[in-house]
Amino acid sequence: MTTGYLALIILAVILLQLAVGAMLIYFRRRSHYQQLDGQTERAEPSSPAATTAIFADDTASEPYHPAEAAWKGFREFIVQRRVPEDNQQSVCSFYLAPSDGQPLPAFKPGQFLTFKLAISDADTDQTKSVVRCYSLSDAPRSDYYRISVKRAQAPVGLPEIPAGLASSFLHDHICEGDKLQVRAPGGHFHLMEAEPLPIVLIGGGIGITPMLSMLNSLLENGTDREVWLYYGVGNGSDQIMKQHLQTLADKHHNFHLYTCYSAPLESDIEGIDYQHKGRVTLHLLRDTLKLMRYQFYVCGPKPMMESLVPGLEEWGVDSGDIYYESFGPASLIKHEKPQPTASEHPITVTFSRSGKSILWNATTDSLLEFAEANDIDVMSGCHAGSCGTCQTAVTSGEVDYTQQPDADVEPGHCLLCISTPSCDLTLDA
Ligand SMILES: Cc1cc2nc3c(=O)[nH]c(=O)nc-3n(C[C@H](O)[C@H](O)[C@H](O)COP(=O)(O)OP(=O)(O)OC[C@H]3O[C@@H](n4cnc5c(N)ncnc54)[C@H](O)[C@@H]3O)c2cc1C
Ligand code: FES
Known about the structure:
The protein is an alpha/beta fold. It has 3 domains: 74-155 and 162-186, Elongation Factor Tu (Ef-tu), domain 3 (Beta Barrel); 199-327, Rossmann fold, CATH 3.40.50.80; 348-427, Ubiquitin-like (UB roll). It has helices at residues 3-41, 165-173, 208-220, 242-251, 282-288, 302-315, 367-373, and strands spanning 74-84, 91-98, 112-121, 126-135, 145-150, 179-186, 199-204, 227-233, 255-261, 276-277, 295-299, 322-325, 348-351, 356-359, 391-396, 399-401, 413-415, 419-421, 425-427. Helix 4 (242-251) links the parallel strand 8 and strand 9. The longest helix is centred in the N-terminal third of the chain and has 39 residues, at 3-41. The chain starts with a helix and ends with a strand. The model is unreliable at 24-66 (pLDDT under 50).
């Protein structure tokens, strides 16, 4: 065999390997996209929940492809019914039907609606537009959506601070028959059904709302997955949907209810009104769950999120099995942010319409916080990357996201509330 002939054989073998490799990659990708397509198809109105999306900070570096919204912009809804949900009347459910009478598209249990409220200020006699998000708190239905809103009180000991703007408005001024402007269901925090693992739902306070949607949907659809619900709340006077949850627990052998009262009243009886005295802690989860793989869904107040989410990971739960959502500012759950070093190049942020160029303060959590601190007039709503209100055009430069945006971001734009500049930046603000 000549040297040339041998070289040809080697070349042919290499080419063959390359071709096989390319084919493998092609078929893997194709099956991945087919999977996603299949999941999207299952999200048709007549079918129950379907899942396509990803969540958690681990995905923040991946390219973001916003899902197609069920309708564009805001759609008018009529408040069909208001139902107070707790003894203190601090949580009220609103049942919403579309004014156009058309059937509602399905959503993924765990998703939220975005509202644009026209709220008038008694002092100035002016009306301002306020955007807020509220999780859907029931299983998908074709005739109504339900949200459950907690009145946000002024911080304890600071009576001069006003109570929550939007929640007070909804509680005090929105009656049956009133109309509300609503954006289509959205959000990446929702039930993942691709892998039928047992499910642990953890809701603290009003963070119970997305869990209710997931729970109702799972049980109504006759799931055979084991479902645990850990509901952390002060006591019987601020627990919501107590009878409903107990009825579900009595009816479904695969549903395990752990209501946890951190400060039970004398009239609250352990074992009847609640199952555990104290908060929902990792200790409680370890004591009550079997040693096996679960999907965890967590939504609650800041201390709960800050202890449970990292705690679960330390316990050995794969971060891919932990899904969480925070109702507050995006900074509530921050994975380690690289600390600025003295040698780093200073970054200038230019707000072109305001005519200001300001040196970026690396201790600031977000461009929104930075803009507000420097008196730049920017619109905002959720402060959590969910509502899209703070979307701003980036004229030059780039931003880093601190978490995956839930809102659809147009090309060439960024969400100020969850981004920081990665280099000199010019914003159209
Ligand atoms: C994805 C998502 C889903 C959500 N789902 C739900 C849900 O299902 N149910 C629900 O009830 N909420 C939910 N929320 C929270 C909701 O969107 C609102 O943030 C909440 O209702 C508070 O809004 P607000 O306008 O009433 O309060 P804001 O006016 O935004 O005030 C918030 C708090 O700050 C206090 N405050 C006001 N001014 C000051 C000041 N100067 N200094 C210090 N404190 C001040 C207020 O007293 C209040 O306690 C969700 C949020 C997100 C992002
Ligand atoms: S304020 Fe809602 S996405 Fe930024």
